[in-house]
Amino acid sequence: MARSRGNGEGSIYQRSSDGRWIGALTIGYSSRGTLVRKSVSAKTRAEVVRRFKVLQAQYDSGAPLSDTQLTVVDLLAHWHRDVLRHQVAPNAAKNYKGIADQHIVPTLGRVTVAQLTVLDVDRLLSQKLDDGLSVSTVQRIRSVLAQALDQGIRWGSVTRNVARLSRAPKTLRPEGRTLTPDEARRFLAALAGRRNEVLFTLMLATGLRRGEALGLRWSDFDESNATLSVRRQLKRETGRLVTSDTKTLRSRRTLNVSSSVVRKLQQQRRDQVAACERAGPRWIQTGFIFTSIKGTPLDPANVNKDFQLVCDAAGLGRWHPHELRHSAASLMLAQGVKLQVVSEVLGHSSIRMTSDVYGHILAPDREVASEAMETLLWRE
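Predicted structure:
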């Protein structure tokens, strides 16, 4: 009676169908009770022996064994189906899948993960840059592949992440366009009496992201202490307006607002009460600070359109609401607010991000530092 092979035992044989040599290693049983084996293959016996020895050594050392049959397209599919779509918002998962299907699968999809090399990834990124894709898009392609391979390592199907070993294309972070003090005052003047006057005023005064401002509820406004608690964001997702967590953990923050902003919010509350009375039974109570004439959340797309109308009225040309955030940060720094404080107000994940984007505004501070050292060391 033939003895069944135990864990760690293997065999080498030649496959009759195509003459290739196979080295198979028994590693245990699946959750369904079926035998699990890892295998390597080669055209010659000598080569398969060499590969089998590597496989055996990995198993003996306790290192995860790569799946020699798993292709990149299969890994991406498993990652999306079993992990990714449960971890990120539907729009984000759709975006990840689109990047994989459009940019990774056509070139690397049929390559087995075990045979994927750093050179393969570098060539893919280089080709995408040559095709005219932006650096940020190519960085995103690399990130998607790297995250999928990370998951493969967790599953034990991949032994190393060649995407993270590849060279990410570099780009200088562009300086965000900002309103000058004069342009900011013109913008506020053009806002007077408009429906979204308080919304845009608040965004300029605090640097709130559009989604964060639209996600504010009256329960987030502490009138006595003049603070706003940022706890969520409003966005359109799969055709619906939904609220979700803030962009990062640091984005959850409490902001102090000036007396002028407090008065604006008080007026917003009175205007909303009047709108509720006019709407009568058509009013939908949602608790949001900024709503439609029926009480429902504001659609970000409509907010963008109204914002452009204000910019046109102020003679500013074409701008995006997010540039109010850049403007708020720049104006704070120009007024001497410390970089760390600006970073906390914006809810950046790190002070380094704030410095990378707005460091050029700190030139006067650096001049003060150099003058201080000049006085200390050389002037009597």
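Summary: The radius of gyration is 29 Å.
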